[in-house]
Amino acid sequence: MILIKPFENTQDGHVVLQVRLINSAGMEAHFLSYGAILQRLLVPDKSGNKRDVVLGFEDLKSYEADTSYIGQLVGRNANRIANAQIELENKKIALTANEGKNQLHGGFESFGKKVWEVTNLGEEVVFSYISADGEEGFPGELETNFFVKLTNDNTLVMRYEAKTEKETIVNLTRHEYFNLDAGLTDSVLGHQLRINAESYLPINKENIPTGEVLPVAETPFDLREDKKVSEFINRMQGGYDHNFVLNNHGNKPAAVLSSSDNKLKMELYCSQPGLQFYSADGMVDFHGKNMNIPGPSAALCLEAQHFPDTPNHDNFPTTILNPNQLYSHHLSYKFYYD
Question: Is 177 known to sit in a ligand binding site?
């Protein structure tokens, strides 16, 4: 079932819609047309009780004021670009710099701050946004479509498509903050996490990759087996904000997250080469929806994407999109109870 209704208006008067997807098991995914934000993700247990497993807000004003990208679709480029500069067709292009001298998550008013068009396609919904040539410095008008579907096996299936009129850079991601305890605990420290990656990208003081690709073995980045978050989080001063190089596992998940009681599990599947694990250590005293979490570690993010600062590293998989190409990637969150 798909229900679409008005939610609230932005401060400049644009109507924002709420899109509710409900499957036969009672699972619900609530999106907003503002930022293609995932406002709620309600997962039913075997008794029919539902856990809302993502952080978010009740009102639009809070999303407009948010600076943590909560629940957003991030673009035109996810993560960081050093010195807010790229080079295309042998020309250097200056982007907006919104994190010191660097660009983070597409600039000041990126995709997560835009009102998207919504179309009900019957079994799925598509959110559409046209980014103007030169927006945040990126060349080429970019048409982006984001498709969402909720299947009856409790899987939220998502895919991105994008087309450009000029050679440009595209790297889209989702920025959900997951807490599978549904506010029952003050943090995700009791969660277990597994990331199927043999390598990771080391970073400098500005959280920019050095260009190296190093093995995770015998490092704090070795999360190839289920590990309790509290057991490894303190091994990294300042927490984790690192990109993992995903293994090619075919039908195996890129990551698995388990609740503190180990009953609810989420498997993340994606087609992108990297997964940014952000432990959100700086999130303190989060107040939103029915979850008031003092923190730290109120939630964590698993952002499937291409590598950060890819335009400045020839050894990274390219994020260049040409006019004769279709940008296409898929992502899904599958939930089940043991």
Answer: yes
pTM: 0.96
Count CB-CB contacts under 10 A for residue 48. 8
Token output for 111: 């995709």
The answer on whether 66 is annotated among ligand-binding residues is: no
Q: What is the pLDDT of residues 109-140, one digit of tens each?
A: 999 999 999 999 999 999 999 999 999 999 99
DSSP 166: S
How do strand 241-246 and strand 255-258 relate by DSSP bridges? unpaired
Residue 74 is classified by DSSP as E
Query: CATH no. for residue 291?
Result: 2.70.98.10
DSSP result, 177-215: -B-TTTTSSSSSTT-EEEE-EEEEE-B-TTS-B-S--EE
Give the single-character DSSP code of 83: G
**Which helix (H) or strand (E) element contains residue 243?**
strand 241-246
Residues marked as catalytic: 175, 303
Annotated binding residue 243: no
The count of residues in the chain is 338
Query: Which phi-psi region, left, alpha or beta, contains residue 207 (left: φ > 0; alpha: ψ -120 to 50)?
Result: left
pLDDT digits (tens, 9 = 90+) for 27-44: 999 999 999 999 999 999
Q: Are 190 and 86 in contact (CB under 8 A)?
A: no
Judge if the upstream peptide bond of residue 317 is cis by omega within 30 degrees of 0.
no
- The residue range of the domain holding 205 is 2-337
DSSP, residue by residue, 289-338: TTEEE--SS--BEEEEESPTTGGG-TTSPP-EE-TT--EEEEEEEEEEE-
What's the CA gap between 103 and 252, in Å, rounded? 33
Q: How many structural domains comprise the chain?
A: 1
Query: How far is Cα of residue 110 from the mean position of the Cα atoms in its chain?
Result: 14
Q: Is 105 annotated as a binding residue?
A: no
